[in-house]
Hints:
disordered N terminus, alpha/beta, 12 strands, 33% helix, 9 helices
Amino acid sequence: MRLVRHCFIAFTAVFTSLNCSAIDFDDPVKLATHNLAPYGSYPDNQPKEYVAGPQFKGQAVDTVRCAFSQLKLPLEIYVAPWKRAQELALSGEMDGFFAASQKPERDRFAQMSITIAEQNWTWFFLKEATLKPSNLTFKQHASVASFNGANMQSWLQNNNYKVSANPIDTNKLHQMLLRGRIDAALANNLVMGELLKQTKTSGKIESSLLMNKPLSVYFTNRFLDTAPQFLNAFNQAVTQCRKSSS
């Protein structure tokens, strides 16, 4: 059982002093994420462990770790498929999940932090494609997909696109696009960009920006009820961490 005590967090010269009750825990805060470069991933030659070790790094992971270090709070990060990561938070096994964009279904059981990493939802399609996002008939006729558990996949379905596949991750999505099984993929610009570099397939694919959707940590309402001041303190720490890394 998590025991909650009163604490006083004295920020350094960078922070103003902040009375902060009920955010000092005997147990680590548990957050779920997924193996997704450049936000958080294992090196190619490292085993993919459920409990993330120091070798699990990336833009989002590094910012979250930095914030918890500033707050002097213990943290455990667990790595699972993205849909499973969210289910772990919903069931109460985790205190939150990241890196996630805003979604009404998530808002029902959790609250977002401020932005921990940037993201643009971007269309990717083969250069020789006849159906492109700029075409007037694209939405009506194009076969599209994102990956399982992604906010993008739900958005496509809710906006009546012709979603024809549900791949487990961006790697599978990329493969489906190259094989012509879909006309276009909706993906995170940085994640797909990394894949195109790694696979040397950028010459085969074009892209078109859809919208900006920044990424945050979703902390469960259950967790925040035990620590009413936590989210404000975490947001301040994230602000400083992102400034330091820029």
